[in-house]
Write a structure and sequence with these properties.
heterodimer, A: 347 residues, alpha+beta, 13-stranded mixed beta sheet, 10 helices, 13 strands, B: 339 residues, alpha/beta, nine-stranded mixed beta sheet, 24% helix, 21% strand, globular
């Protein structure tokens, strides 16, 4: 059984045909889109690359990683290479939901460790002698044995990080969900949703594959959101409007927008149909009430997304990491996540 | 320091105008230095442009995003550049707006001998009043407006007033923090260039009539006409007309009726050119680069600001009415623009 790893730079390399077929067949998340990875790579200091792992010439899995470079100078990443020390950071831009790898169901679980080992060796060889090792950022409990190996190899440093929030949908209508909430939260959610629906100045639209969204306004809102949470320091103005344009036009990505009658964007949220029967409650942003926004857009967004998930027949929803207490209050449960650090001599 | 710089730049076959080097010299020495014939060399002009392009691609978000998706053949429209002004700031950071008086001194120098070297500049704005910070002179001439040196400070040698700083004179009676809005940051100018409204300008001129320093007033045709209509005696002041390049460049037909020169102005780039005595519109080639682009919208000129790091302006077209031809003046050999 031969295992080969092909490393692709989405900025320069064309995707191989079997990768396109694999992504379609496995129903990978929108963040796996090759074009999106390319756009993000050009506008970032840390360009991403995709590793296609093949067993006997059949694709067994894909792994997305970022070539993490220290921010030494205020420049974008060089088009190719660059003589700076780097780390293979196994994560996917904007994907804080699921691990940034996907293996075909035909591959037995026990083989995942070998595939990861081949990937690590190939990635470190590609990045060169300045590569210091590999970091896996979002490892779920099921993948931990494959990544933190024991035996003759030194164990790797494994640390628990911020958990992601997941909900298993076991009901077929909104009442089923609302019953799982506490009484006070149920009342709050209903009241806040009703208040926003009665607001006559608010224009709400939610659709898939939209092309009428002003992505510049969305990008500005997202950057303001980051500035607010990062003490006014944003080095890279990301995501760029072209990235959002490409993302929002996909048929499996829905965007919910709140405008006032004058046309000002007050808030937005993204909903994605992920692999299989998953749904993702994606990034969101809103103008703060003191700057003219509306209160409780967050909860109204969850209400509408839940309606959509039930309509789509989704069985599992991932709401991402961050603000976990509020999400747990809304019926999600925490899935622990770990980060595994493998310095070069341990791979 | 300035002599060493002069020798080095002559050795390289070109004169570089360096605002940083000139700040420490007084105005008289600087004007003599720049009166030397500066040779325009196309190759080094193109080279500076290519360097600006490479730097923009490596450090400025807007150009990185645009040029990685399309090629550089498509210049950026000025409407998009204005809408995304924050994305024109390089990753290192910097101001998001061009200093409003960028290039004014160079443009006046380019326009010929009509404007004296030692002069205080006032640029007219359309705002109703520039507030008391600009300082309104009283009729008896006791108070002088902030930023305009009074006779006892060595008339006109405003560059040498190192203790005044950017706030200009702390004239008696004018409030604290007396900096006129937006006028303090000009190349080499220690705060003696001001943006003032028409009424304040009239007040200043009537107060300073016949006294030093010499005053030059820069404004559009309408603003200068409004100034004339106030009835102030404009005899001692020099008038310079400011023309918006985005409305096109008219044929130069001899001297303007009441202005000694016309300078080309753009909201985004500042001052980019001036009318020459040869009858052509000369470009400030040391600060700006222009190339002709033929695209779907026809023939356009794309402007690049070579002397400005933030915001970075590279290959920006100025709309459909802007001039479309770039030539080299047969008299001077330097770039000119025409409709």
């Amino acid at each position: 059984m031969s295992i080969e790893v092909q490393l692709l730079d989405p900025r320069h390399d064309l995707p191989p045909d079997d990768l396109v077929a694999f992504a379609a067949a496995e129903g990978l998340m929108p963040y796996w889109s090759y074009d999106l990875l390319g756009i993000n790579g050009w506008n970032s200091w840390n360009p991403s690359f995709v590793a296609v792992v093949r067993m006997d010439s059949q694709i067994a899995g894909v792994i997305c990683a970022v070539s993490l470079m220290p921010l030494l100078r205020h420049r974008f990443a060089p088009a190719r290479g660059g003589p700076v020390p780097r780390i293979v950071d196994v994560r996917q831009p904007y994907n804080g939901y699921w691990p940034p790898w996907h293996f075909s169901s035909a591959v037995p679980k026990g083989d995942h460790g070998r595939l990861f080992a081949h990937f690590e060796r190939a990635a470190i060889r590609r990045l060169g002698p300045s590569c210091m090792g590999v970091i896996y950022r979002q490892v779920m409990t099921a993948d931990r044995p494959a990544l933190s190996r024991r035996g003759l190899r030194l164990p790797r440093y494994c640390r628990q990080v911020l958990a992601t929030t997941v909900m298993d949908v076991e009901w077929s209508d909104m009442d089923g969900w609302l019953k799982t909430l506490s009484k006070s939260r149920r009342g709050d959610v209903r009241r806040q949703a009703r208040r926003l629906r009665e607001d006559s100045d608010l224009v709400v639209r939610f659709d898939f594959g939209r092309d009428d969204v002003d992505t510049l306004a969305v990008a500005r809102l997202l950057i303001a959101h980051h500035l607010h949470h990062n003490d006014g320091r944003v080095v890279y103005r990301q995501p760029t409007p072209s990235y959002l344009d490409n993302l929002i036009r996909r048929p499996d990505v829905g965007i919910l927008t709140y405008h006032n009658r004058a046309g000002r964007l007050l808030g937005y949220g993204t909903y994605m149909r992920g692999g299989g029967t998953d749904a993702i409650f994606g990034t969101w942003g809103a103008v703060r009430p003191e700057d003219g926004g509306r209160r409780h857009i967050y909860f109204d967004m969850y209400y509408r997304f839940m309606e959509q998930a039930i309509k789509d027949g989704r069985t599992r929803i991932n709401a991402g990491r961050g603000m976990n207490e509020i999400k747990c209050d809304l019926g999600f449960r925490e899935e622990p996540m770990y980060s595994v650090v493998a310095p070069r001599w341990v791979t | 320091m300035s002599n060493l710089f002069l020798i080095m730049s002559l050795h390289r076959g070109r004169i570089l105008v360096s605002q940083q080097a000139a700040v420490s010299t007084n105005l008289a020495a600087r004007s003599t230095w720049l009166a030397l014939p500066g040779r325009f060399a196309q190759r080094s002009w193109h080279r500076r442009y290519r360097r600006a392009v490479a730097t923009a691609f490596a450090t400025v978000p807007l150009y990185r995003e645009r040029w990685s998706l399309t090629t550089m053949a498509d210049p950026t429209e000025v409407t998009e550049a204005t809408a995304r002004a924050e994305d024109l700031v390089p990753l290192r950071g910097g101001p998001a707006t061009t200093p409003p008086l960028r290039g004014l001194r160079e443009a006046l120098r380019l326009s010929g001998p009509g404007v004296p070297a030692r002069t205080t500049l006032m640029m007219l704005t359309d705002s109703l009043s520039t507030s008391s910070e600009a300082g309104v002179a009283r009729a008896d001439g006791v108070e002088s407006p902030a930023g305009v040196d009074s006779a006892n400070s060595g008339g006109g040698a405003v560059a040498g007033q190192s203790d005044k700083g950017a706030d200009g004179d702390a004239a008696p009676g004018s409030g604290p923090g007396s900096g006129a809005p937006g006028g303090a940051d000009t190349p080499g100018g220690n705060g003696q260039v001001r943006e003032v409204s028409v009424t304040d300008a009239a007040a200043v001129l009537s107060a300073m009539a016949g006294r030093r320093p010499h005053i030059t007033v820069v404004g559009t045709v309408e603003q200068l006409a409004a100034l004339g209509a106030t009835g102030t005696d404009l005899g001692s002041a020099t008038l310079v007309m400011r023309h918006d390049i985005r409305t096109g460049v008219p044929e130069l037909a001899g001297d303007a009726a009441f202005a000694v020169a016309t300078v080309l102005h753009d909201e985004l780039f500042g001052f980019v050119g001036a009318s020459g005595d040869c009858g052509r519109w000369h470009l400030l080639w040391r600060q700006n680069y222009v190339r002709a682009v033929v695209g779907a919208a026809g023939r356009r000129l794309a402007f690049t600001a070579l002397s400005q790091r933030s915001p970075r302006l590279v290959d920006i077209t100025l709309g459909s009415e802007a001039p479309t031809r770039l030539d080299y003046c047969p008299t001077h050999g330097t770039p000119t623009v025409s409709a």
